[in-house]
Amino acid sequence: MRSLVFGASAGLGRALARAFAARGHALVLLARDERDLEAEAKHLRTVHGTQVEWHAVDATDPAKVVQVLASLAREPPVSNLVFPLGMAFAGDDGALPLAATVALVNANLISVMATVGVFLPAMLAGNLGNVVGIGSVAALRGRSNNVAYAAAKRGLESYFESLRHRTAATGVRVQFYRLGYLDTQLTFGKRLPFPLASPQPVAERVARGLGRDLGCVTTPAYWRAVGVAVRCLPWPIFRRLKF
Amino acid sequence: MSEARPWPQAPTARRRLITMDGSFTADAALQRPDRYAFLSAATERRPAIARGAGFSFAAASFGAGAVTVDFTAFDRILAFDAASGIVEMEAGARLGALFCFLTARGFYLPVQPGHFSITVGGAIAADVHGKNPAREGTFLAQVRSLRLFHPAHGMVEASTTQNGDLFRATCGGYGLTGVIVSARLEAQPIPGDTLTLAIHPVATAREGAERLREWSTTHDLVYAWHDFARPGVEFGRGAAIVAKFSGKRGVRTEAALRPSRFSPERRARLPLSLITPWTVRCINRVYSMKLRRSEGPTTLAAALYPTASSEPYLALFGRSGFHETQAIIPDARYGEYVDELRALVQRSGVTIALGVAKPFAGASDHLRFTGDGISLALHVARDARASAFLAELDRLVIAAGARPNIIKDSRLPRAIVETAYPDYQQFRAALRRWDPERLFRSELSARLGL
């Protein structure tokens, strides 16, 4: 079993790579910085004795991502795709310059779609595998604070919905995790209204969920209530909220 | 190689940090980087200090206006060679993770501090000691090389043969030369598949010291526990605790460590100290009964990490905390020192909650805690009487030609360190040669004038 983790060098991606390695998966790690990838790959090989291939890629450049993926070793075939990557900008209030908007949508959405596009035919042919999307509760209802980010993540959710439909009659399983606040660099030091979840248990949960037809899962569980509340707020109230 | 961006630069939290002994609190700017891009040379620099588990009793990882760099995300084990026992890891790796990794392969690090949550970087920076420093030396004895980051120098390799001066100043340098990024340590095959603990009651501290000297050459773990609670009755009564490996060498052992969420904040949860002369007597009674029953086979984890099992004891000191003071007393002066200690305890009315002695040997260098003699560590509850007592004890330490432990004693004054450590000025100068800006600083370095 070989698993590809896109965004593997920090936070949830690192925890996922470790959870998979502990289960004996061979790994393909993708992230921006080769120094981080090299260190993580050494750790996984030394501690778990697993086979690790890594490539430094820039998720804002999907064409380059596809090019790198074409160079992957053919064996063993990649049967799990996991996408714990995300990119957010401060000042994402609807007036981002074009380059920033393109980079943001590329990193959060297009590179994921491009990667799935590379592997899906073989997975369908083998009638086996998992595609795991990682979304955000931030996409539940559009807000002025992260206009483009939420749009990209909402797009991702729609894409995974379609993907689940496409693979419904096959052995390929699609899972989509809508995550609340995670204790990573993205949230570090911020004052947030809800507690942070540690990436490790989330990673364990994702690893346990492989092979199951879960659809969309919101985790940690209390975010389901938050989600319902946020979506049900009547517009006259919602419009006044600043968050 | 220098970039225009300032260092350190990562998302920043304001956190109230507290030392393990509860003596010092400060609001610190805390960063917790997890990518190597953080370790980029920079021309614009701010004072900083690295932090591992934050378990040191003295404020070595915050204070003095420095940005605290929590390095625990750099926790990867990078390589292991079973032929040489050399293991390479990032400095934020915890000793417990390393213990599980190594013992599963039949190896271990003989020199380890009392708690498995402590990081490799912290153990190097404080040059901690283990359970038989007379034979095994300090943590330094296991360090083959390290990589250090300083924003003015970038990433630098250091060992006894490469950048030797920097290596000397970094091992036991309290984090003041930069951020220790990774290290190569030499692990040893586990000497036997059975570790047997023996308890030898002693009537006095003097007798304890004699036993420690005798057994430090023949045993793998050697220390003594003393009951100093009552200066009038059986002062120093206790036991020498020794353990020895036997059986097959280099065998994989069961590597189960109890998970621990212990932290300085958790230790300080009780609003009131429950340490009184009466509770100390009870604790000592219970502990000495427990000791007697603990004879026989023990686990390596229990023997290496005794602090992990005394978490509830440390919590009894509550929010106001405790003082630990530890000094290496030359063998010839030890008996006399303990006599003076007894007189001082009687005069000052403090209650010594814990006394632990260990045999030491080795030449001190810079501000590393080693030397020839017997180290005696004492715990007292932190109150007004304790401060006066410890100031008096400082005088006894100097008079005995002893050396106090910098990382454990959070109130150690600069004058005492300057007198007790002949290399004080030399270490201070070495820091300034390497880093004229003196960028890496903490409450510890500010208090000691480093």
Question: Which key terms come to mind for this protein?
Answer:
heterodimer; A: 243 residues; alpha/beta; B: 450 residues; alpha+beta; Alpha-Beta Plaits; 8-stranded antiparallel sheet; 5-stranded antiparallel sheet; 26% strand
3D architecture notes:
The complex is a heterodimer of chains A (243) and B (450). Chain A contains eight helices and seven strands, in the order βαβαβαβαβαβαβαα. By secondary structure, chain A is of the alpha/beta class. Chain A has a seven-stranded parallel beta sheet, sandwiched between helices. In chain A, helix 3 packs parallel to helix 4. In chain A, 42% of the residues are buried. With 450 residues, chain B is an alpha+beta fold. Helix content of chain B is 29%, strand content 26%. Chain B has helices at residues 95-103, 120-125, 133-136, 164-170, 205-216, 264-267, 277-293, 300-304, 306-309, 311-315, 331-348, 384-399, 414-420, 424-434, 443-447; strands at 12-18, 25-31, 48-51, 67-70, 77-81, 86-90, 107-108, 143-150, 154-159, 179-186, 188-189, 194-202, 221-227, 237-246, 296-298, 322-329, 352-360, 373-381, 403-404. Chain B has an eight-stranded antiparallel beta sheet with strand order 15-12-14-13-17-18-16-19, with helices on both faces. Chain B has a five-stranded antiparallel beta sheet with strand order 5-6-10-8-9.
